[in-house]
């Protein structure tokens, strides 16, 4: 029929594209002759060295490289403007100096640093190697009469990814202080606007930044079903703003089977220290807590708080058998080490001839404690002492004597008003009886 056209064959143009794609380079490996989804692609299972992604080579990586940031960009966030800037500074004199930080005009996490007598809000940058302050803050510091030494500088600082140096106006040195810790620091003054940055080294010196891996304990919540719980829970203050949690275990101790292990007396320890001239004292940390309780014994330690029931998983203060158990474990831990004695968590290493032998004994004890996963309290440890206080007595190469605090306690003691107070006073004085001539005769009237 005239005027009509018949369509007898329809060819998809993608067929031609498929032939062309076989000649194009693979978007994963860059080679021709196969598709990117081909299992035989050389890039299959490989890791890109640029972005860390899988199944492609770095030469074919589509990840965009970081572009030099604009000096300042304004973005609208929830109806308000927030100035964002990415800063990185380095010096041409030292290719290893960098500063990486993303700053916001509304950023938090700042700390107050006293710079030359003026308080400045600064942001800690653990990747920075230069303290940075902008011109506006510098004008405020001068207005507040900051105590510093300013100087011109030929340093060239660069924003991250940029080849154009920032405008450095100069540098100044001032004393930086945070909560009693001080450090002499140099600050670079730049033209522009931004958050004051506190570099890595200065932050470490001021004690506001700690680098390194810390061990964390992962715990999990478990429902406690216990027939035992203690209503009396006491918080006892310790030194340096520390506390000790105490649970009233008197009822539980009535049924507790104590481990009969003799704790050495001070006279026994003094006998082993005879003729010693060099001493070191080690103090174990966390008291009884390094010893783990058996699961069957944990329910006895259950106590109640306003947040619910809790129980101890480790040996705690208040258990009647804790001193004997702890003494036994620590004494076994240092068994075989020469010149070592301990009473509870206090360990003393001694020698009477030379410091070399003392150091070998000390090294052996430290290695043994490390093997047993026991931690020391560095603040209470003393090394290479010719005179030290141990269990209330002063030890030296001249013999033993009473500690000053014990003597002061006896002198400042109040007049006893009852028989129980007299017994307490005699107990205090009796501890130093070996240092008091004719103590029995003197104390007989009491």
Automatic annotation (TrEMBL):
Keywords of this entry: Metal-binding, Zinc, Zinc-finger
Composition bias, Basic and acidic residues: 1-22, 64-77
Entry's Gene Ontology molecular function annotations: aspartic-type endopeptidase activity; nucleic acid binding; zinc ion binding
Residue ranges, annotated region (Disordered): 1-23, 52-90
Reverse transcriptase domain: residues covered: 217-395
UniProt GO BP: proteolysis
Domain of life: Eukaryota
Pfam families: RVT_1, zf-CCHC
Domain CCHC-type, residue spans: 26-38
UniProt-listed InterPro entries: Aspartic_peptidase_AS, DNA/RNA_pol_sf, Peptidase_aspartic_dom_sf, Retrovirus_Pol_polyprotein, Rev_trsase/Diguanyl_cyclase, RT_dom, Znf_CCHC, Znf_CCHC_sf
Record's protein name: Retrovirus-related Pol polyprotein from transposon 17.6
Organism this protein belongs to: Stylophora pistillata
């Amino acid at each position: 029929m005239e005027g009509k056209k018949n369509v007898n064959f329809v060819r998809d143009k993608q067929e031609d594209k498929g032939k062309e794609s076989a000649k194009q380079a693979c978007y994963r490996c860059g080679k021709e002759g196969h598709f990117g989804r081909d299992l035989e692609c050389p890039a299959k299972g490989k890791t890109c060295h640029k972005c860390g992604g899988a199944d492609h080579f770095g030469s074919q990586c589509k990840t965009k490289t970081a572009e030099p940031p604009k000096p300042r960009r304004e973005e609208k966030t929830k109806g308000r403007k927030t100035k964002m800037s990415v800063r990185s500074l380095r010096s041409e004199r030292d290719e290893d100096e960098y500063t990486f930080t993303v700053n916001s005009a509304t950023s938090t996490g700042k700390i107050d640093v006293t710079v030359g007598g003026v308080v400045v809000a600064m942001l800690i940058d653990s990747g920075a190697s230069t303290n940075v302050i902008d011109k506006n803050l510098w004008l405020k510091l001068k207005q507040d009469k900051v105590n510093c030494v300013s100087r011109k500088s030929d340093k060239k600082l660069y924003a991250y990814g940029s080849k154009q140096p920032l405008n450095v106006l100069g540098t100044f040195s001032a004393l930086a202080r945070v909560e009693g810790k001080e450090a002499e620091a140099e600050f670079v003054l730049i033209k522009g606007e931004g958050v004051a940055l506190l570099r890595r080294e200065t932050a470490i010196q001021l004690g506001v930044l700690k680098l390194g891996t810390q061990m964390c304990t992962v715990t999990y919540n478990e429902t406690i079903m216990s027939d035992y719980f203690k209503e009396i829970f006491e918080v006892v203050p310790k030194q340096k703003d520390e506390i000790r949690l105490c649970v009233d275990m008197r009822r539980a101790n009535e049924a507790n089977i104590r481990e009969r292990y003799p704790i050495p007396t001070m006279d026994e320890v003094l006998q082993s220290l005879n003729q010693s001239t060099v001493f070191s004292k080690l103090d174990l940390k966390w008291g009884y807590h390094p010893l783990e309780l058996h699961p069957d014994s944990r329910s006895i330690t259950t106590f109640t708080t306003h947040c619910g029931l809790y129980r101890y998983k480790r040996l705690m203060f208040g258990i009647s058998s804790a001193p004997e158990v702890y003494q036994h474990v620590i004494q076994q831990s240092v068994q075989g080490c020469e010149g070592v004695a301990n009473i509870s968590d206090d360990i003393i290493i001694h020698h009477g001839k030379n410091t070399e032998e003392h150091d070998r004994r000390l090294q052996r004890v430290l290695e043994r404690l490390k093997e047993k996963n026991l931690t020391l309290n560095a603040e209470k440890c003393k090394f290479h002492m010719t005179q030290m206080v141990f269990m209330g007595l002063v030890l030296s190469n001249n013999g033993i004597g009473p500690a000053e605090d014990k003597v002061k306690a006896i002198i400042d003691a109040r007049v006893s008003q009852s028989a129980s107070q007299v017994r307490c006073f005699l107990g205090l004085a009796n501890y130093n009886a070996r240092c008091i001539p004719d103590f029995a005769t003197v104390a007989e009237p009491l």
